[in-house]
Amino acid sequence: MVREGQSKNSMSGSLYALVLAGGSGTRLWPFSRRESPKQFLDLRGEMTLFQETISRLEARVPPERMVFITSKELEVDVRDQLRQSLGTTGDKCRVVAEPVGRNTAPAILLGAWIVYLLDPEGVLLAAPSDHVITDGGAFIRAIDLSLPTAHDRIVTYGIKPTRPETGYGYIRTGEETGSVFEIAGFEEKPNMTNARRFFLDNRYLWNSGIFLSSVKNLIGEARMFCPDIMSLIEEIDPVNLDGIEEAYGKMRALSFDYGIMEKTARGAVLPVSMGWSDIGSWDSYYETREKDGSGNVLGGDVISLDNEGCLILSKGGLVAASGMEDSIIIQTEDAVLVCPRGRSQEVRKVVERLDQEDRVERLGHPTVRRPWGAYTVLTEREKYKVKKLVVDPGHKMSLQKHDRRSEHWVVVRGEIVVTRGEEEMTLRPNEGVTIPIGMLHRIENRSSELAELVEVQLGDYVGEDDIVRYDDGYGRIKE
After folding, report:
1. Are residues 315 and 221 in the same domain?
2. Which of 295, 321, 350 is the endpoint of a domain?
3. Which of 179, 181, 274, 322 supports an S-S bond with 135, CB 3.0-4.6 Å?
4. How far apart are CA 251 and CA 44, in angstroms?
5. 215-225 helix and 104-118 helix, angle to the nearest 10 degrees
6. What is the pLDDT of residues 57-68, one digit of tens each?
7. Do both 143 and 252 map to the same domain?
8. 297 and 203 in one domain?
9. Whether residue 335 sits in one domain with residue 264
10. What is the rounded distance in angstroms from the CA atom of residue 149 to the CA atom of residue 442?
11. Is the pLDDT at 181 greater than 70, yes or no?
12. To the nearest whole percent, how much of the chain has pLDDT over 90?
């Protein structure tokens, strides 16, 4: 066992952070989409939930000891968010893209394996990237308080309930041992009758899904309770991730709660009040926000007349609502959600219908951020797509080509430098260029002003994955 030789009275290893940054982006539709899940949204202000997570962790963990587990589809977004949060220091973070999602147990155990090979005495804090914690000081104090216990235990953080809540799982506490409690049991998301009972019983805490433990302890418990998964994890080279495709292809999906925490005798829970929410629905979002005198939460271009207890948000055009009660109205550029408050968990049924009908609204927004700027899809049909591109000052796209489409650009604002095969040209407003199928090209904004252009794609396939990169400043080229 990996615990051999481990001192029980010291915590010699460094603290590492494992940030879980995958997700399908369904529960907060239409803001959150599969290609832009909620951790990348600025739901609370200027920073995204992902950036808020990094800001909290920085108080105890330097970037070189941060590991991020995400999906192949979201790897670019994770790296972009790291640069926005940490600048070039973000390049010191370790980003791991799972070839396919297998739930939280494989993700956490892969992170533990990577850290173990770097620092066998390391202590790992595993946390989702899409939770809200309004009291960062309480979060840090909870980590500091539970660090000594994390040597022998897997500590999770239980949130003291502030209301009956059917959208969260619960932990039932047992005997108090030092600064933590034994875990007497886990409860799935309850109905309202049980949620009210749990709220009145101080033994019950919300399950935060945040864990702290030594990597030796995590690996040892995994070898005991899910040896099939751990043996596959140990076949992966933690440095360059050789073998990850094959290992994940054989691996079953398993949650960390079910696979480890519900079975281990080493689990412990620390009760914490830190303004936590997983914002798992529009109802929980409403609960976390400040209300006006009529109990409304409003955001964006909204006119509200005689409404009570409503959540009304717009990231599209004007939303005007009058005489509504306890309602949720969410507008984006391409979709509107309307439902009663208290039933927003049912948005998953809407997303299921979008999947069944193969609707583009389930995948991404018309406007998508990229490290170099952003693009907006203006229209898309079977063999053509029209976009608006915005290139930030001092940024450039990758040197790339497309195998199945040509591109035609017209500058409408600013100035860009275009690489087109072997030639380089400067284009200004009302000037354009055509990029044939298979030709190497790049757009660069060397000026101090934004550059905007209209792009028309033509071909038998105009998907975003028809791209081959040859040079890139944002770490998007795979060896």
Report:
1. no
2. 350
3. 274
4. 36
5. 130
6. 999 999 999 999
7. yes
8. no
9. no
10. 53
11. yes
12. 77
* Average pLDDT over all residues of the chain: 92
Task: Provide the pLDDT confidence category of residue 90 given band limits of 50, 70 and 90.
Answer: confident
How many residues would you count in the chain?
Answer: 479
Q: Dump pLDDT digits (tens) for 337-383.
A: 999 998 888 899 999 999 999 888 888 888 888 889 999 999 989 89
Residue where one domain finishes, among candidates 259, 280, 301:
280
Rg (CA), the chain: 24
What are the backbone angles phi and psi of residue 196, rounded to the nearest 5°?
-65, -40
For residue 368, which amino acid is it?
A: V
Query: CA 443, CA 397: separation in Å to the nearest integer?
Result: 6
Is 46 part of a structural domain of the chain?
Answer: yes
Backbone φ and ψ for 124, nearest 5 degrees, come out as -115, 125
Does residue 98 sit in the same domain as residue 73? yes
